[in-house]
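Data availability (excerpt). The following record was deposited with the supplementary files.
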Amino acid sequence: MSNQENLSTNNLHILEVCCKIEEGCSQLYHYLSLLFKDDPKVSALWDKTAKEEDNHAEQFRFACRTKGRGIEILKIDTQKADTILSRIQSIYDAVKKTPPTIKDALDIAIRLEQGMADYHMYAVAIFKDENMEQLFKAMMRYDNQHIEMLEKALVELSHA
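Predicted structure:
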């Protein structure tokens, strides 16, 4: 694929689903921020993480707007992307139906972020443009930072 070629319609759909995945994570974290609003430190952690997920969604929107320029091959197929999106929606629905404790919410988010880090770096794409690749590598670094922040909050909660 030359630099002037765009991704197929199916691949652009996959990028749109990836955007929805990030939006779903953000929605979950915004909800947790509100759920734990009585604990300003925990609420701020969820809010910060949600805003970073919003930024990830914007990176996928950018990839869609540019019709995937800079992406050589998508390594994730429609079924895998849809499965991840369904999983996130299921987690969100479960959390809304039965609000978790702070500890349980942190455990859920840590597992989710661990999966998202793998998904961003290893499952999404092979890049032909270094700038686009750096955007996705930055997402993985943020996921790893999310994991560290959430694990730190879990440790602090356990020692409180």
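Summary of structural features: The longest strand covers residues 71-74.
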